[in-house]
Amino acid sequence: MPQKVRIALDAMGGDHGPPVVIPGADLSLTRHPDTEFILVGDRTKIEPLLESYPRLKASSRIVHTDVAIKMDDKPSQALRYGRWKSSMWLALETVKKGEADVAVSAGNTGALMAMSKFYLKTMAGIERPAIAAIWPTLRGESVVLDLGASIGADTQHLLDMAVMGSAMARILFDIERPTVGLLNIGVEEVKGLDEVKDAGQLLRDRNLPYLDYVGFVEGDDIGKGTVDVVVTEGFAGNIALKTAEGTARQIAGYLRSAMSRTIWARIGYLFARGAFRTLAEKMDPRRANGGVFLGLNGVVIKSHGGTDAEGFAAAIDIGYDMVRYELLAKISQMLNSVPRVAAEQAAVESAP
Amino acid sequence: MPQKVRIALDAMGGDHGPPVVIPGADLSLTRHPDTEFILVGDRTKIEPLLESYPRLKASSRIVHTDVAIKMDDKPSQALRYGRWKSSMWLALETVKKGEADVAVSAGNTGALMAMSKFYLKTMAGIERPAIAAIWPTLRGESVVLDLGASIGADTQHLLDMAVMGSAMARILFDIERPTVGLLNIGVEEVKGLDEVKDAGQLLRDRNLPYLDYVGFVEGDDIGKGTVDVVVTEGFAGNIALKTAEGTARQIAGYLRSAMSRTIWARIGYLFARGAFRTLAEKMDPRRANGGVFLGLNGVVIKSHGGTDAEGFAAAIDIGYDMVRYELLAKISQMLNSVPRVAAEQAAVESAP
Fold it and tell me: Quick check: is A8 in a domain?
């Protein structure tokens, strides 16, 4: 039997803290009984809740702290007062020390990324981490990165993201060679930033073993599911994600008001309730909850701050998969086959 | 009685050419009888169609050419073979020569922008043009720019876009002082590119007469309608637009399949048909068709290439409004009150 997956939870993270984290962990444990949890946070708030979840209680231990990062703290503030002692930091510490395989937090994204970078450091060969999410599409799901870990991306960072996103897609979708596209804009000749063009050229030339580069994709290709992995720098990626969320909410708003305007619409709604339920499930942001921090010495998962137990369990599930199917090993393996831009340029320059 | 609005149409532009352009012009003419049209394109294709639209025939003249820019031409190709003689170029020429007040084309965006820049040139004080669109929101509509005229934007370009977008919003929404937001990403401290921060600071400090700067907005604020004008550089703006279009199509796809899956859903659909029609109208991309090229010596409107007569008429209507309510004069008036970044920096540097 394989070793258990050891998951550290920032029990105080998110808008709700333990009342979402504890039942979420219990839900995920039902799906993956080979899990052990480290619950990091205020013992006086965690222990009473655990009484209702005996199975989780038996599979977990508590690391106590009464310091928690607030949702609106700036990353630098959070680092200043939360280092060494906040629930977020201590959850990362269990990963750093090898006591846990993955840390999951619904806390403040900026603080979590700042602490992860500071404490876990980036993997050898990776300059900057990225945040990747699972994006529901018409064809299923895709991995999209970077959603805002950093702004701007040079050629090397784009290549590294193609590799890291593919490693994640190989695990999630259980495919050997995910298709990869670089996000770009449509006008043929302005066609994008030089670094995007260069990264595309390198990916095409190399024809890497574990990813199938298909070329540039545009914003509407994300929802279509044209490729398994969409790579872009963090500013545009974040704008794309938030714009899609906004559009989904906007259409849901239109639909709600249209379905309640007339008596006929209300009757129709009653008949079609099952269909609307299916639609709501399709659009449920909880299903795809869980941003994966890629490029660090350790696996860190960011859950939406406002999610419920179901959503938090989804984030834990992603963390479980990333560990069970060896995300870090897959990334390292792939990185070895990826061109190092600086080294290549140096080689070209020193060529006779 | 005020002078007529003189509109030049690239009759050969778009996926369909005259069969969409001619009935579209006729539709718009019903709404604005004080319009005169110059129909630029192949006389042998335009004239037979005009026979069905006597009113349009009486209010238009034809400028003949048998050269048309293809939808997939690269801008440089289009300029090379289409200059001086294509329907797109000649439509712009009527504006350049003062024979028309605005040119409307459903042709290739890149070619239209390249020709517009080359021939009409940018307004005094404006370095780069921008493409602005009307974006349907939960609160009504907003103006969003730049949607891909150029990649990247320095502080000055962002300020200029705030002004140009506001001038457009003043006309469209008939408000004196539209609210303006700069598109940015959510993480507090990475908070965006330096130029976005600088532009925000300058807009806040100046408190300009014809726009009300409210701060940074995120991707999901576009659909919410948080501000009347959303300003961003062209790469992120194009990604946002296409991502929103993709998401809308995706949800429409989910909805269609949900509503046809069971007999109950189909019955419900019949009852709620009116509601679905309202929804479809809300989501109809034809309603907001018409990208406005801002910052040129002349008004140029880009219609979607694949639109129908109704959609093309909407693009003409926007062109009509931009002329009737004096877009160019409004922009010039506002530009005078806007800081010139380079001049200010020089002033600071030469200060004692």
Answer: yes
The answer to whether A302 touches A148, Cβ cutoff 8 Å, is: no
Residues B306 and B344 grouped into a single domain: yes
CATH at residue B116: 3.40.718.10
Q: Do B150 and A190 touch (CB under 8 A)?
A: yes
Chosen domain end from B241, B259, B286: B286
| Structural domain boundaries, residue B308 | 1-126+295-352
Point out the domain boundary residue: B253, B286, B319: B286
Interface test with A, best of B242, B255, B257, B287 (most A CBs within 10 A): B242
Closest C-alpha to B206, from B169, B163, B240, B248: B163
- The reply to whether B157 and B251 lie within a common domain is yes
**Same-domain pairing of B144 and B87:** no
Whole-number average pLDDT of chain A: 90
Cβ of A189 within 8 Å of Cβ of B224? The answer is: no
Inter-chain touch B246–A239, beta carbons under 8 Å: no
Q: Is the pLDDT of residue A343 over 60?
A: no
**Cβ contacts of B253 on chain A, cutoff 8 Å:** 138
pLDDT digits (tens, 9 = 90+) for A91-130: 999 999 999 999 999 999 999 999 999 999 999 989 999 9
> What does DSSP assign to residue B70?
-
Q: Which of B131, B271, B277 to mutate to probe the A interface, most A CBs <10 Å? A: B271
pLDDT band of A193, cuts 50, 70, 90:
confident
Looking at the predicted structure, is the pLDDT value of residue B147 above 70?
Answer: yes
| Contact predicate A131/A299, CB 8 Å | no
Q: Any residues with CB less than 8 A from the CB of B343 and at least 6 apart, and which?
A: none
- Give the Cα-Cα-Cα angle B19, B20, B26 (nearest 5 degrees): 100
